[in-house]
Amino acid sequence: MHKESIAADETVRLTLSDEERELLKDPMVFFLDGDLDEEVQRERKARDGLRFTLEQLDRFGGYIAGHANHAEDPEKEALLDGIYEKILCLEDTYEEAE
């Protein structure tokens, strides 16, 4: 599969459903640091999708996968799995240009 090459500082958009967005608001479910948290906070207001570089997207995916693996609520696990699937789709579509 051919991936589209993008610059290291270029961002891709991860679109969230209202339900997924609400889940990320819950600090008991999800906690991020630094630049990832800033982007989640920005998106909550703008509601136009999360914008991440591929490196940030990879880190965000790690957080999502970790929380999905430890979720005790099957509904929350399903939502987190759905977000992770979207991340994998983006990672399968784009690669960092050399």
Kindly describe this structure.
This protein has one domain (12-96). The strands form two sheets. It has a two-stranded parallel ribbon. Strands 2-3 form a two-stranded antiparallel sheet. It has helices spanning 18-25, 34-46, 54-70, 74-93, and strands at 4-6, 12-14, 50-52, 94-96. By secondary structure, it is an alpha+beta fold.
Throw out a few tags for this protein:
alpha+beta, 12% strand, globular, 98 residues, single chain, two-stranded parallel sheet, two-stranded antiparallel ribbon, 4 helices
Quickly describe the structure.
By secondary structure, the protein is α+β, with helices and mostly antiparallel strands.
Strand and helix layout:
Blueprint: E1 4-6, E2 12-14, H1 18-25, H2 34-46, E3 50-52, H3 54-70, H4 74-93, E4 94-96
Parallel strand pairs: 1-4
Antiparallel strand pairs: 2-3
The tally of beta strands, per DSSP, is: 4
Order of helices and strands: EEHHEHHE
Strand proportion: 5-15%
Helical residue percent? 55-70%
| Count of alpha and pi helical runs | 4
Number of domains: 1
Strand order of the largest sheet: 1-4
Structural class: alpha+beta
Overall average residue pLDDT: 90
> Shape from CA axes?
globular
Cα-to-Cα separation, first versus last residue: 18 Å
